[in-house]
Amino acid sequence: MSFEKEILCVGAGYVGGPTMAMIADKCPQYRVELVDINQARIDAWQSDNLPIYEPGLDEVVKRCRGRNLFFSTEVEPAIRKADMIFVSVNTPTKTFGQGAGQASDLQYVERTARKILECSTSDKIVIEKSTLPVRTAEAIKRILHSGDSDVQFDVLSNPEFLAEGTAVQDLLEPDRVLIGCDETERGKAALEELAAVYANWVVPERIIRTNVWSSELAKLVANAFLAQRVSSINTISALCEATGAEVDEVAHAIGLDSRIGSKFLKASIGFGGSCFKKDILNLVYIARSLGLDEVAGYWEQVVQVNEWQQDRFVRQMIAEMFNTIAGKRIAVFGFAFKADTGDTRESPAIRVCKELLEERAELCITDPKAIENAKLELGDHESIEYFADPYEAADGAHAIAVITDWRLYRELDYERICESMAKPAFIFDGRNILDHQALYDLGFSVVPIGKPRLVHF
Ligand code: NAD
Ligand code: UGA
Question: Ligand 1 centre from 36 Cα, in Å?
Answer without folding.
Answer: 10
